[in-house]
Amino acid sequence: MNPIELALVNTINKHPQSPLVIAYSGGVDSQVLLHALAKLKHKHKGKVLNPLTVCHVNHGLSDNAQQWQNFAEQQCQRLELSLKICQVHIQVQPQQSLEALARDARYQSLQSIYQEASIILTGHHRDDQAETFLLALKRGSGLKGLSAMANETQYNKDLLVRPFLAITRAQIIDYANVHELNWVEDESNADTRFDRNFIRNDIMPMLIKRWPSITNTINRSSEHCREGQLLLDELALEDLNLSQHGKYSLSVKALQQLSTARFNNLIRYFLAHNHCLMPSTEQLNQLKLQINANSDKNPIVKVGQNYFRRYKDALYLTEDFKDVSDWSVELITSIKNQKIEFPDNLGTFQFSVNFSKLVGEFERKEARQIEYRQSISNNHLVASLPNTNCKLSIRFNHNNPTCLPNYRNHSRPLKKVLQELNIPPWQRKRIPFLYYGDVFVAAIGYFVCQNFLIENNE
Questions:
Q1: CATH assignment, 3-210
Q2: Contact by Cβ (8 Å): 301, 307
Q3: I need a labelling partner for 100 at 20 to 30 A (CA). Which of 90, 194, 320, 444 fits?
Q4: Contact yes or no for 85/56 (Cβ under 8 A)
């Protein structure tokens, strides 16, 4: 059995019965992957138990995209393999490369093939690994980036497997020639404006000419970096266990005890664990500085699409919140059951009007719910209705009215009450408030003012 088929057999044996998805572009790497898997499947006459689906992603970025799709259909028909065509439309975004956007769209398509966990197979090989290492080196990446591509990477429910990382491009070409395979050539691969193409077409040939074994040594360095990163991850997990304040928060006091290197390592690990973009060196420096600010300060540092916000003794990881202060909705008392969708993914409010009372339930939806003491908080709301025909409304702003919550003995301004509840400043701006006319009634999810409590006999 040749090395290519052996690599695939080892992969299948490691993941028996798991559905296989072949990432198939029609290029030589994926063509060899397709052919070798089909050969194994037919050779064992159905004894390969893994369900197998070929996925071709049509990005529509090339004039030849339809021809490549036709080629994929012909090849799968000839090999008697199931094919799924995924059409994607790339929206160009600022500060993101077209190559990265296309890659993200491709992986999303590959993950959509099966509802259950599947094994996604790609044709990445040893030469690709060397190119990825040099790209990471160009970007100034740390050990994680210089580790290049792993043999197996978890992508949400699916496992991305690269069975050919020990196989060279020359071995793949030899296999294709021996089996007289045809494949498509992406004309963009010759465009050296793309960094990877520049490295592949211009840099690697010079390096190989000078040092013929350079691909092997680069891959060896990549393996050393991966081992080093595993040690850093083990250290970060230890520090996380000592620093964790909540699911999405860290203890400021524990963070202050760490050296700069361990602090940076922990923050990167914490962000990766929560599927966030990695911070720049400047952002890490700023975060390290801000956790040492006076305890009465609430500094904010943006990292990627998220924010780190300090409140008292904790550092919270939050979403990039939208301003909801101008949002309001009027409740229609003539309709018995209603559902309101709050803005910016805050959640829903399901309520009903029964005789002289309003009954509601607040269901929060925020992806990263902020942890803070909510011993008095309650997502259920029951309040008496006024005798007058004033409007009932929900808003996110207030003029700091004096109020008497159901759990207090004395009135206080609303701002002071929210501080008493230890609600972080940014979260106070995202609390839905119930009003009868211009009279403040309740902070939904927290309390009802005593004047509007339902009597026991009601």
A1: 3.40.50.620
A2: yes
A3: 320
A4: yes
